[in-house]
Amino acid sequence: MAKYAAAVDQGTTSTRFMIFDHSGKVVGVFQKEHEQIFPKPGWVEHNPMEIWERTQEVIKGGLKKSGVSPKDIAAVGVTNQRETTVVWEKATGKPVYNAIVWQDTRTDKICDELAKDGGQDRFRSKVGLPLATYFSGPKIKWILDNVPGIREKAEKGEVLFGNIDSWVIWNLTGGTKGGVHVTDVTNASRTMLMNLETLQWDDEILKLMSVPKAMLPKIMASSEEYGKAVGDLDGIPVAGDLGDQQAALFGQACYTAGEAKNTYGTGCFMLLNTGEKPVQSKNGLLTTLGYKIGSQKAVYALEGSIAITGALVQWLRDNLKFFEESPQIEALASSVEDSGGIYFVPAFSGLFAPYWKSDARGALVGLTRYVTKAHIARAALEATAYQTREVLDAMNKDSGVALTALKVDGGMVFNELLMQFQSDVLGVPVIRPVVAETTALGAAYAAGLAVGFWKDFSELRANWGKDKEWKPKMEATLREKLYKGWKKAVERTFGWIE
Description:
Layout: E1 4-10, E2 14-21, E3 26-33, E4 45-46, H1 48-66, E5 73-80, E6 85-89, E7 99-100, H2 108-115, H3 124-127, H4 136-146, H5 150-155, E8 159-163, H6 164-172, E9 182-184, H7 185-188, H8 203-208, E10 218-220, E11 223-228, E12 237-243, H9 244-251, E13 260-264, E14 268-275, E15 286-291, E16 299-306, H10 310-318, H11 329-334, E17 343-345, E18 363-365, H12 373-399, E19 406-409, H13 416-426, E20 430-433, H14 438-450, H15 457-463, E21 466-470, H16 476-491
Parallel strand pairs: 1-5, 5-12, 9-10, 13-19, 19-20
Antiparallel strand pairs: 1-2, 2-3, 4-7, 6-8, 11-12, 13-14, 14-16, 15-16, 17-18, 20-21
Helix pairs in contact: 9-14, 10-12, 12-13
């Protein structure tokens, strides 16, 4: 009898392999960072070959470190940074260009061109998304338009497109020797090319973006067997695939309409389960797929995406050398009582939800000579909490349901100062689960469900446990005063790029 389920979690800055037991506890983890490539301002790339190498290294390392035998693993799931776009040659497995990362803004002209007829919401009723540089469709078009000879190959199906999930699964199941070319509904819903109702590629949008259907992966459920792994996981079913934020929703056991989670990673992503019907947002949120289990009906979600949260801490670490290790920001920020009246709006890649302004750029406002680097560090953490409040306000308006508590996960949830400030700014309790790495857990759950390692949602719910809860301590008048200042600061960033 298999004892474990595993997951490859391919994120924006690193790849990890995690092994979980039946109760959802971590029994093995191995992680490696990969290079961030910035060829020009606003451009962000990854090397897909490096990502695949790291994936193999963390699988090997995770098995060795945990002492788990592959024959004890029931299934493996994949979860991934979404919208990051890879185009590769089917025959050789070689990428035709670096992966264009979700944060990249080079497709702004393509988006502007498409928006001339019908505006930014031209495709929203079909795909749930505004025209923005964030999504994969325009990135595919950019590669086809800018890499010589690739468009012809794409039309013949000689080059393949995938978000990172498709790239990893194709390689994991054999690559050039019979690798399966698939994606799931959650990842497909981030391309701007999938119709929310039919869950299939939309021919009209493909034509308008001039993306050949022959290069696209087959859209499947988030939990079903796609193929068998080769290499160190030889013979193990690859049976789960969820974009990282949907995987976190799944790992947080948000299986009922009205349940929400917020993941604090490179960016910040709040998802609210809206049930079996897509809810169109009137307040700048994305309508997206939550998950689809086998032949069951798909479950939809509303999402608020924030581009820069943890990445701001990395920027203070790497570009400004404020501290050596990211967790050190907490002590620095705690050394002052407040942010000294400053606000830090990290619109490095424009603003995502609820504004969708690609012409915005980052700003530090309210500076006086009183301000020290400790105040800037504190303002950087507070920016994450304010941006989350903006998204939550939009969610409450769209869904008509007021959130009573927020389940949180991701790397930043161990920052006590941030979590308390988050609760203060929202005015609701913030709850951290025992397993904070719910992204990998969600992918393992999806894979395990597909092969019967877990029977149903009730088993998964039983695994969820609370680790810590923060309750609001701030006076309501101060909360609203601070938030008003934040809104004013955000407006200062609009329209910076002409």
